[in-house]
Every structure is written in C-alpha cells, then in structure tokens.
Write a structure and sequence with these properties.
Shape: elongated
CATH topology of the domain at 6-47: Alpha-Beta Plaits
Radius of gyration: 18 Å
CATH class of the domain at 6-47: Alpha Beta
Strand order of the largest sheet: 1-2
Number of helices: 1
Structural class: little secondary structure
Mean pLDDT: 82
Oligomer: single chain
Distance between the termini: 65 Å
Order of helices and strands: HEE
Largest sheet: 2 strands, antiparallel
Strand content: 5-15%
Helix content: under 10%
Number of strands: 2
Length: 68
C-alpha cells in the first residue's frame, strides 16, 4: 500500500481510512462489495483478505392461484 487513497475513494460505505500512508478497512462499515480491489495500483487488497461471500437466499416468490 502506498496510501494513494484510490480504494478509499472507491468505497461507497466509507469503510477505508488512510493512516500513515496505509489503508485500513473498517470491518464494521465494510459490506464486502470489493469495489476497492480493482482500483488498487499495487494490488495490496486481495480477495484473500475478505471472508468468503455468503450466498444470497433466493427471493421469495408470491404464490399465484389459477382457477381454470
């Protein structure tokens, strides 16, 4: 990390702070969107740093009744 703040600017949740030219992810704010990963010019933020994504449950569909 070179403290360029590109990851901080890319984060829609304000979950990254820059201190002493290093980026730190604020766990309580991070929503694992990973928008910070591709903008890092030094590849300092890796997918390995994130916990595995949880599968999103399928949306509940309303049941419809058809009388024929």
């Amino acid at each position: 990390c070179i403290g360029c703040s590109k990851c901080q600017q890319a984060c829609p949740f304000e979950a990254i702070t820059i201190e002493n030219n290093l980026a730190f992810i604020i766990d309580d704010k991070c929503r694992l969107c990973r928008k910070c990963v591709p903008v890092c010019p030094t590849n300092s933020i890796l997918e390995l740093n994130f916990p595995p994504r949880k599968e999103t449950p399928p949306a509940v569909k309303e049941e419809a009744t058809v009388n024929a």
